[in-house]
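Example 3.
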Amino acid sequence: MDARRQWIALCTLVRREVRRFMRIWTQTLLPPVITTTLYYLIFGALIGPRIGPMGGVPYIQYIAPGLIMMSVITNAYSNVVSSFYGAKFQRNIDEMLVSPMPNAIIVLGFVIGGIARALCVGAAVTVVSLLFTDLTIHHLAVVVSTAVLTAALFSLAGLVNAIFANSFDDINIVPTFVLTPLIYLGGVFYSIEVLPAFWRSVSLFNPMLYMVNVFRYGVLGVSDVQVVGAYAVMAGITAVLFLLNLYLLERSSSLRS
Amino acid sequence: MPQALAIHDLHKVYPNGKVALRGISLEVAEGDFYALLGPNGAGKSTTIGIVTSLVRKTAGRVEVFGHDIDRQFSQAKACIGLVPQEFNFNIFEKPIDILLNQAGYYGVERRRACARAEALLEHLGLWDARNQPARFLSGGMKRRLIIARALVHDPRLLILDEPTAGVDIELRRTLWRFLREINAAGTTIILTTHYLEEAETLCRNIGIIDHGRLIENTSMRRLLAKLHVETFVLDLAAPVAAPPVLPGYTVRRIDETCLEVDVPKDKPLNRLFAELDAAGIQVVSLRNKVNRLEELFVRLVGEGRAALAEA
């Protein structure tokens, strides 16, 4: 398949993915906006003033980047895991597997679809944030690159989950028991500086901490972690997951017996 | 000129230890209409799965129009259109989108894909339903949709895995007509089916698989020539009390106006009618009792299994 045909195949897959989450926008785009509004109302407007400033900024402003990143992470993951598993469940994944599309294009198509949804939701949540607090972007390139890289990473993670999943329960286990706790403990609502030394050290093993903090650095200019190191962690995990997905698409017995 | 499909010594052992294919080799010429028959679990779908890369082979070689499916997978896959046994499209998508997506996965440019998709939807009677979610289509429409999807990138080899399973007679005839048309236009077709009448009506060549082995691979004419006896059912103008005795034929009385006659291959039908006439029996209509191929199929599979048991 020459480069031009591969490009057509990739555009087709991305278009299909974007149309899928747009078609069901009440399930994909609306809920995170409502959830984030509630977070701002409760943690930002009601409880926030009693907590006082964190990281040198008002609490409501401190949690804004974390909430945006939380929606980016969960939406990137859930978009790919549900779309790919749905295709596997209905066996319309065979449409792609019998075609001459290389596996790398299939992975890229789903990942770009995940990134697109994550950025749409991220943008919507940012608009909600601006209703509650002022946000002055400290470093736009860091904001955009972190959001895209994080969305890519979790899209790839969602794809791994979907390839292994054998039931709809399997695609809910990881988000519920792994992703959500890691996000909540990854510095969305607090700085790890407020933790005892032991738990602060434990938190450094949580990859979410790096993504949330680099994004927070891009927005507010404050971070609990080293920005360059965090990029390296994200890029490394993304590359490993991409290769793992290529391997699984070729070898997984749930796709090709 | 390379064959449309060339399979060499194909083996498949599933991870659970089940041996599905035991060294199948066959060739399908370009432009052929080829039937792949076999009982359930014989290895037909596994063979098709390997050709279309949905199943990984254990050993052997497969070439599609001279392209090795391992080394030139992209060129090989581009030549194939697959109509699977089950409906496997996204039920929430519209037929037009299903076709356009499939064309896109094959790298067909949007404008060409639209023209091709619209022509197929029209030709297969799906035009009015093109914009409604596929889950609302009738069974027959869904069947036509997966055929249209398989053809949207204009494949040189169309593989149909039991395409008329569960469809009514009228639709089956419509699909037969359509398949004959595209075969006449140059598309090579490989068909697996349980309806032996379908294979006999449509296909020029035939392969029979049983227990993962190819037990027959020949032309339909040669295969049918192997039939020794054909059974006909005769409807009579007047009742008969007992079956007539006709030398060289075995006659059974089904009811008072219906007879069943076994006619050996070397005895002409004219002689049968002459003898019936001499016995004062008038025939108003005649039909085959069972499909000829079905009889032969059962015999060949039975022989194959007996040989396997002896070995």
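Chain A has one domain: 3-251. The longest helix of chain A spans residues 59-89.
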